[in-house]
Design goal:
mainly alpha; 2 strands; binds Phenylacetyl coenzyme A
């Protein structure tokens, strides 16, 4: 095969690869106009699309409480938060589109199960305390995972992450504030918070992905500086950050093995149920079917809006052409 390749083509290929590798090595950004290996492009599409889908599906668990929030103030806060998540999904779909994939295609892949979204959004929200616990623990885990992604090697993704992280930090604080208010309330309210923490703690640890030795993508993604830390490193950082927050709040995590280890300078924690994680990721979690069905019907109900937008854009284009 090499015999048919012109020497100048080999040189050109080598030059663009060198440029790509040197950009990564110098901690500079790969931009959509730059040449990139096909595997890098596919990895970025996979990660960004999964992330975008998570934000959009992630509107559903808390959205469940918008009509039943206990006061106008709490309703306004929750509405704003869920709306922010929609915004994050939009920035991320736009970042993925710079890699040559269309948002419609990504939505199709989500609905047909060919692209994933975070396992965490497949659990139910039966209690209003879940709104606070999602803000504190789920947004907390998201921040821990996403702050390093602000230095990710793909420019549009890294820039989207800067804004998203600012908003996620705000979400985490509002969740914690809600829980502090409940903890200052009645015994029943305190029990509601603890019961919710018991349900969300282990799933929040799973958000960081499989253990390093079972993570097929980490090594290459670290080499390309898409990821800056491994799944286990970030999970440990999250545990270390969350334990003092739980103590300040007055709740405990449902893990008898959770304890400070003076030798490592970190908290040890118990065994994560990876069978449960695999079940949820493969579509068999408590709410997977409901989440996808809801997304599918919302997408179908929105068809007329997309058609109207396209018809309007066509009209505008025809008008501009006539004027020219
Ligand atoms: N759930 O080889 P790795 C949020 C998949 S946003 C489902 O370790 P990687 C905001 C993984 O994709 C939450 N699937 O993969 C919010 C891969 O799939 P493949 C979303 C998972 O990419 C808050 C396979 O398993 N955040 O919460 C999960 O190197 C509140 C093997 O895994 C992001 O997406 C999982 N938990 O590392 C919204 C952050 N973990 O190759 C609403 C960006 C792994 O079979 C309310 N993403 N998989 O197709 C990342 O940082 C990485 O993609 C990881 C996974 C760390 C998630």
């Amino acid at each position: 095969m090499n015999e048919t390749v012109q020497p100048e083509t080999v040189d050109a290929d080598r030059a663009v690869l060198d440029h790509f590798e040197s950009t990564i090595a110098h901690d500079q950004r790969i931009e959509p106009r730059d040449w990139m290996p096909e595997k890098y492009r596919k990895t970025m599409i996979r990660q960004i699309a999964q992330h975008a889908h998570s934000e959009i599906i992630g509107m559903q668990p808390e959205g469940n409480w918008i009509t039943r929030a206990p006061s106008l103030r709490r309703k306004a806060i929750l509405l704003a938060k869920v709306q922010d998540e929609a915004g994050h999904g939009m920035y991320l779909y736009s970042a993925a589109e710079t890699l040559g994939i269309d948002r419609g295609e990504m939505t199709e892949m989500l609905i047909s199960g060919r692209q994933k979204y975070s396992s965490i959004f497949n659990y139910p929200t039966p209690s209003y305390a879940d709104v606070g616990v999602i803000g504190w623990l789920v947004d907390g885990a998201a921040i821990c995972n996403q702050v390093p992604l602000c230095r990710s090697s793909f420019g549009p993704y890294a820039r989207a992450m800067v804004r998203i992280c600012k908003e996620e930090s705000f979400h985490q604080r509002q969740g914690y504030e809600l829980l502090m208010t409940m903890m200052r309330g009645t015994d029943t309210q305190r029990e509601m918070v603890q019961e919710s923490v018991n349900r969300w703690w282990w799933p929040s640890l799973m958000m960081f992905g499989p253990p390093d030795e079972q993570s097929p993508n980490t090594e290459q993604s670290m080499a390309w500086k898409i990821k800056r830390h491994t799944n286990d490193e970030l999970r440990q950082r999250y545990v270390d950050m969350s334990v003092p927050q739980a103590e300040a709040l007055g709740v405990t995590f449902p893990d008898p093995e959770l304890r400070w280890n003076a030798a490592t300078g970190h908290y040890d924690y118990g065994q994560i149920d990876w069978d449960d994680f695999n079940r949820v990721v493969s579509g068999d979690g408590p709410c997977n079917a409901e989440r996808i069905e809801h997304r599918r019907s919302a997408h179908e109900d929105g068809a007329w809006v997309r058609e109207a937008a396209i018809a309007y854009a066509d009209k505008q284009a025809a008008r501009t052409k006539t004027a020219a």
